[in-house]
Amino acid sequence: MDEELDISALVERYEQMQLFGKKMYLDADEFAILADYYNSLGDNEQAEELIEEGLRMHPSSTELMILKAKTLVFAELYDDAVAYLNNIPDEGDIELPLLRIESLLHLGKTEEANDLINNTMASDLSIDDLYVFITEIGYVMNDIDNFDRAISYLEESLKIDESNPDVLIDLAYSNEMKGDFHRAIEYNNRLLDIDPYSFEGWVNIGKLYSMNEEYNKAIDAFDFALTISENDVSALKMKALSLYLNDNAPEAIRIFEECIRIAPDDESLYDSLLEGYEAMEQYDRMSRTIDTMEQRFGPKGIAVRHAFVELLKNNLPEARRIYNGIADEEKETLGYYMLEGEITFLDGDLRAAEAAYIKAALLSEDNEEIIDRLANVSVAQEKYEQAAGYLEQLLKLDPDYPTAKSRLAFIRFEIGTKEPFDEIMQQFSDDELRSLLHVIAGNEDSDFSHYNRQKMLIRLNEARENRVLFKNIKY
Fold first, then answer.
1. Of 61, 331, 406, 439, which residue is most buried, by most CB within 10 angstroms?
2. Which of 372-378's residues contact partners 24+ apart within 8 Å by CB, and which partners?
3. For the whole model, what pTM was predicted?
4. Which residue has the higher pLDDT, 53 or 235?
């Protein structure tokens, strides 16, 4: 409490002097205290001014020099930070190697950073310094997306202090990024054991359950979060999404409508609501919602949305009429190119459709929906190798993208090349192979239940070879 009073008195004295435009003499540690204070308020500019002023008065202060290095790292000026750190005398402060390691890792100088990590770990660190060091290294590894090393350091940190909530949060994050949702949930549960009324904790575990396709648990977690912070739009949105993924579109729609009443200026809510209406095939409600969006956000993109609704209603003439009337200033947008692709594809102009989707892909790289459309257009033009390339790209982005694996199998079957066909077959489960056999055999009554995996692969390759023979005879 006395320390807080001292800081308050120092801040008050400093701000009074600032108000009157006067300079005041401060010790180096007082400059550092003030800089930390303004940093904690988010006033980084004021903090940097204090550090610079402090260094003018105390140019050899290690404490202020370290703060200066921190500002360089925070600003992502890593080359400057490394150069500046070389001027700071090493007095055993653990922050010096930490700042240098962080800068080197961000600069891609991994070997140099690893040497410094190993040398620091091998030095005679106190248990407190060791704890700070491995914990901070774990955080940095997460920042550079090296999640395996982040987990390694942070798990060692937990052995020293198992109740640090920041470490548990970062471990949950790194495991989530690796796709290990079970472990991420485990760490998040440990966080909730420490603070069972953590709104962020319940929201995060709800998100993790949803990503792990445990939608009922996700919904329960979001309900807990909403008892802590009622009417929080972010939690309501995620609950609605979990309901939607849990095949409860009506309740999801109800919650999205509630969200819009709470936050009518959040345009993303209307997009989510439109997806729900589309799933329920409630096209008139989609049109009314789009009209509401026009009134609130203006006409930009509205015509494209209305045209897509008409396509969903199988009303191609009306969709084409709206498309033809779209203003020139909206003709170089992602939505316009997607609409152009859909309409020209339905009109049978496959080259125009392909060109439209390529333009869309240039505006939205790695967009799964666009790549899917390009694969379909390629198949329609019998460009099977090109279609296979798109589907392989799609599977790299999302190995579970609906029907992508089976479509790639049929394309490889059509092309008739053994090695690529075998490669895609290895990605199929036994049940998926049996389903594929039924389709290729063209006889749903065929019984493949007694076939083992090897026998199914032999039958599929025989079918592929026969298809190649048929094509050779035909052409």
1. 61
2. 372/401, 372/404, 373/338, 373/341, 373/345, 375/404, 375/407, 376/345, 377/341, 377/345, 377/350, 377/353, 378/354
3. 0.70
4. 235
